[in-house]
Amino acid sequence: MVESPVVQDTNMERILAFYVKWCSTIKKEHFLLHSAPNTASIAWLTLVEGQGPRAVYSTHQDIFSVSCNLPGANPLKLKAARTRHEFLMKVLAPRILPPAPRFRKLQSDGSLCFVDWGHCAETLAILCVYLEVPPERRMQGLAINTQQIAQAPSFHSDLVRKSKKEMCDNCKMLMQVAQIAYEDRYNAMRAEEDKIKEKREKDAKDKEKRAKERKEMEERRTNEKIRAAQERRAKELEEKEKLRQEKARADEKDRQARQRREAAEREAKQRRDDEKHRKSNRR
Ligand SMILES: [Zn+2]
Question: Is residue 160 part of a domain?
């Protein structure tokens, strides 16, 4: 457990990740044969809205605490969990802790879960912050799985967020009994993720809609072009037909004029022939 004065919310993920690294290093150096903590948590206090600046300068100004859970049957760990439990009962008195919700709880695979008071990472952080909490303060916190962060070569906010864990039933009950206004950052992070996901889905849908509209517009334009070309072609054919008919009419007129001329010539020739004939008959 580490306690420190004055920190910014933005640093909480970094501090928690650093603490996980610290736990992992200590384990490798001194507790090689024991189970490593698989959960670590950080809790911090925030001023409630409308609170006067006096509180900021009080001895209770922003503090955070970090701690880890105590997995495995190491007698020292069991003793530490018992000490946490005893201390919790002491500070919460006259309120009484009911049996831990996760203790002797049947799991979906038929096994029993034996997580008693004092085991959780949050227990110690909550306890230490609780001791410092004046009634007008609110508390926020975040628990994470340690595995990936313990192995990561450097700090990544994304990895902390990916490793987040919702407060367990024991801790929720503990908050109720301690009457702490607690905000689990897990919920806020989930809400943020849902919002981002929703936005991403909306953007994808909008993009799809825009692409569809673009495609439809292109199709409309292509169809308009085709229609215009067809109309142009039809007009050309109409013009051509008109010219053809005009030419046919002119040809017909020429033909008729030629016929008339030929008939007149034939008639004139006939007349000349007849005249010649008459003249020869008279002779
Ligand atoms: Zn818990």
Answer: yes
Q: Identify whether 120 is part of a domain.
A: yes
Helix (H) or strand (E) holding 58: none
Give the Å distance between the CA of 123 and the centre of ligand 1. 7
Distance in Å, CA 114 to ligand 1 centroid: 12
What's the longest Cα–Cα distance across the chain? 170
pTM: 0.67
Q: List Cβ neighbours of 185 (8 Å cut-off, separation of 6 or more).
A: 12, 140, 141, 142, 164
Note the pLDDT tens digit of each residue in 262-281: 999 999 999 999 999 988 88
With tokens 């016929």, the residue in question is: 259
- Domain of 61 in residue numbering reads as 2-180
Q: How far is the CA of 171 from the centre of ligand 1 (A)?
A: 4
Query: Domain for residue 151, yes or no?
Result: yes
Q: How many domains does the chain have?
A: 1
Collect the ranges in the chain with pLDDT lower than 70.
1-10, 46-63, 125-126, 128-137, 283
Distance (angstroms) between ligand 1 centre and the Cα of 37 equals 13
The Å distance, Cα 281 to ligand 1 centre, comes to 149
CA of 145 to the centre of ligand 1 (A): 12
- Say if 86 falls within a structural domain: yes
Q: Compute CA 114 distance to the chain's CA centroid, rounded to the nearest angstrom.
A: 37
